[in-house]
Amino acid sequence: MAMAGESSGKNCGDCDGKIAGKSQRKVGLVYDETMCKHDTPDGEDHPECPDRIRVIWEKLQLAGVTQRCVVLGSSKAQDKHLQLVHTKDHVNLVRSISTKQKDYQRNRIASQLNSIYLNGSSSEAAYLAAGSVVEVAEKVAEGELDCGYAIVRPPGHHAEADEAMGFCLFNNVAVAASYLLNERPDLGVKKILIVDWDVHHGNGTQKMFWKDPRVLFFSVHRHEYGSFYPAGDDGDYNMVGEGPGEGFNINVPWEQGRCGDADYLAAWDHVLIPVAKEFSPDIILLSAGFDAAIGDPLGGCRVTPYGYSIMLKKLMEFARGKIVMALEGGYNLDSIAKSSLACVQVLLGDKPIQGSSEAYPFESTWRVIQAVRKRLCAYWPSLVDELPRKLINQKTPTPSILISSSDSETEDDTHRLLDQMSKLNIENHQVDTASTSWRAELAKVDIWYASYGSNMWKPRFLCYIQGGQAEGMKKACVGSMDKSPPKEIVWETFPHRLFFGRESTVTWGVGGVAFTNPLTNLNYLTHMCLYRITLEQFNDVLFQENVLNVDSDSPLFDLAALQLVENKGSLSLEAASDGWYGNVVCLGKEGDVPILTMTCTRSAVEKFISGEIPLRPPAKAYANTLIRGLVEGGRFSEKEAEAYIDNAASKPL
Ligand code: Q9C
Ligand code: ZN
User: Fold this and answer.
1) pLDDT tens-digit profile of 72-109?
2) Neighbours of 578 (CB within 10 A)
3) Interatomic CA distance for residues 510 and 502, integer angstroms
4) Which ligand has its closest atom nearest to the C-alpha of 166?
5) In sequence order, what are the residues at sequence separation of 6 or more whose Cβ sits closer than 8 angstroms to the Cβ of residue 312?
6) Would the CB of 229 count as within 6 Å of ligand 1?
7) pLDDT at residue 486 in the model
8) Cα–Cα dist 283/173, whole Å
9) Ligand 2: distance of its center to the CA of 89 in Å?
10) CA 421 to CA 439: how far, in whole Å?
11) I need a surface site. Which of 277, 331, 507, 566 has the fewest CB within 10 A?
């Protein structure tokens, strides 16, 4: 048993569980510096770093909440408890890591696993992480604590019975759940709700209780058609459990990034909370990853501390508030510290922090929630009713390409419409702005530029903004007139086909360059890096991509064109018809900000298919730039990025 700090909740002494007449909940906290010793063997940076739990602990101390909690020392999990959910082989493997004398022995083991590093202290940390969650869960189940938070690492929810993965060695929460159900019948815990709000799917936990109706597993996560980590179909809403466990597994798989409080609360109000009422758990275990938090480098979502506090508060209504939080992921140190504090304040029964979610859920959020309800309503009658129209109409606007690509209007129609619209604009106010400068006007409008080629690598994209030449490029760029860097960068996946074609380019030499088919195709995915820039800057990128001068008197893509592309889905630009990237495609919208990409026209796609324009794999330097972008953006491992590019380059269109 290792003691974390000197303070203990028992020191609440004379207030006897009450402060100023208000009843104070008994909240357990576990933190142990020993778990910080698990680190990369070579000292290389890694998002799952020791400071994660340190900053959380420091934040809680600084805010003065640790003194109001019962601070527990960590404890080591017992092998027999780990083996309730893990194989003997797996437990032996994790234990044996500490007996290895040399880094290379551990590195060899780690290299066989998916997204795992190991050092001499990994084993000990893993035992403490699992043991600490068991300890808090036991004390909450006994009634010695009302609720608690185990601030542990390594995380657990990706770990499967026989496999460590996704930064996880033992499945801490699953071990605790299984311990209560199987080892402590005396505590009377018969039904456990596991809520997993980590941005990634809790694949390990799902599998461990797949056929077990005593555990209702609920996971909300980025899924994006199975492309988000841990990729595949496991996180799909069709995965409802099997045998006696059928209906006791619920996945809410987001189709897109950038989900925030409104999206999560919609999943709470229209899926989790009604089901929890019916299930009526004896205790709740919360796989509390904070990587859906705003600012997280891996998650790309935007849940605020306020959002987390409301989600937690809603869960406190069940199981008489018996809730055990266990840290999972979360990689922005500031975000995880603030979110953790907001949650502990809710556990303590403090008023939730200030905040509000003015935004509406995405349209895709309502689509997912409706699909989940439909799939699960046979098991949970509270999900039977259709959601009122009035409710689901409260949303941010639709990805228009999904609509426009399913109808059969041609590019000619588009041009006719554009002509009509620009005439309208001239009658209104186009005249004076054209003579002053189109730049001032377009600088006021933000768009997301979605890149899928070399621009995914930030240093290369910045050449189009700030000018210059990044590694691998044969020629420098002039840059944009406005050299300010992108305001925000996020990653997203879109159902379009990526391919490579044309013989060679000035910038990269011999070899094909990336295009994405402007038409939606649900069988394919293009990973894109989205940069929030102004419409003026977007024009400068368009100029450079299409080998045109940036000091033009008129923009390639003005406000009328923007409006058109939002309605029509795509628009090929007359003035760039000799360029290769003269087709602007709207992939969707976030609030008022459209997501735009540039690619070839539909007629060029036909020519790629017929062979009139050649398909070509990318040159080495160019492919490496894409791979670098995908890896440094946290989207893929190097191997996965290579496979993704290879696949796109080798399959026929
Ligand atoms: N496949 C947790 O948040 N990403 N784990 C690797 C290449 C792994 C996240 C990207 C993310 C694991 C607990
Ligand atoms: Zn995660």
Assistant:
1) 999 999 999 999 999 999 999 999 998 888 889 999 99
2) 9
3) 9
4) 1
5) 286, 323, 325, 343, 346, 347
6) yes
7) 95
8) 12
9) 25
10) 20
11) 277
Q: Are 527 and 441 in contact (CB under 8 A)?
A: no
Q: What radius of gyration do the chain's Cα atoms show? A: 27
CA 231 – CA 237 distance, rounded (Å): 14
Distance from C-alpha of 35 to C-alpha of 55, rounded to nearest angstrom: 13
**Nearest atom in ligand 1 to 637's CA:** 7
Nearest Cα residue to atom 5 of ligand 1: 166
- Cis? peptide before 154, omega within 30° of 0: yes
Residue 270 bears catalytic tag:
no
Tell me, using a 6 A CB cutoff, whether residue 479 lines ligand 1.
no
The answer to whether 55 and 337 have CB atoms below 8 angstroms apart is yes
Output the CA angle 95-99-102, nearest 5 degrees. Answer: 125
Q: How far is CA 18 from CA 15, 22, 330, 342, 363, in A?
A: 5, 6, 33, 21, 45
Q: Residue with the nearest Cα to atom 10 of ligand 1? A: 636
Share of the chain above pLDDT 70, in %: 90
If we measure between CA atoms, which residue out of 490, 398, 480 comes closest to residue 442?
480
Buried b (16+ CB within 10 A) or exposed e, 171-200: bbbbbbbbbbbeeeeebebebbbbbbbbbb
DSSP 597: E
| Marked catalytic residue, from 86, 157, 158, 496 | 158
Interval 207-226: pLDDT, tens: 999 999 999 999 999 999 99
Q: What letter does residue 67 receive in the DSSP assignment? A: G
Q: Which ligand is nearest to the CA of 222?
A: 2
pLDDT tens readout for residues 17-68:
445 445 689 999 999 999 999 999 999 999 999 999 999 999 999 999 999 9
Give the number of other Cβ atoms within 10 Å of residue 384's Cβ: 11
Distance 239 CA to ligand 1 centre (A): 21
Evaluate: CB of 253 within 6 angstroms of ligand 1.
no
- Tokens 């059969």 correspond to what residue? 408
The backbone torsions φ and ψ at residue 71, rounded to the nearest 5 degrees and listed phi first, read -90, 120
> What are the tens digits of pLDDT across the range 555-612?
999 999 999 999 989 999 988 988 999 999 999 987 789 999 999 999 999 999 999 9
Three-class DSSP labels, 227-261: CCCCCCCCCCCCCCCCHHHCCCEEEEEECCCCCEH
499 lines ligand 1 (CB under 6 A): no
Count of other CB atoms within 10 angstroms of residue 134: 29
pLDDT greater than 90 at residue 16: no
Residue type for 126, please?
A
C-beta of residue 322 within 8 angstroms of C-beta of residue 141: yes
The rounded distance, in Å, linking the Cα atoms of 8 and 214 is 34
CA distance 465 to 482: 7
Average pLDDT value over all residues in the chain: 90
Please choose from 115, 173, 301, 642 the residue to mutate so as to test ligand 1's pocket, defined by most ligand atoms within 8 A of CB: 115
Environment class of 344 (CB within 10 Å of its CB; exposed 0-12, middle 13-18, buried 19+): buried
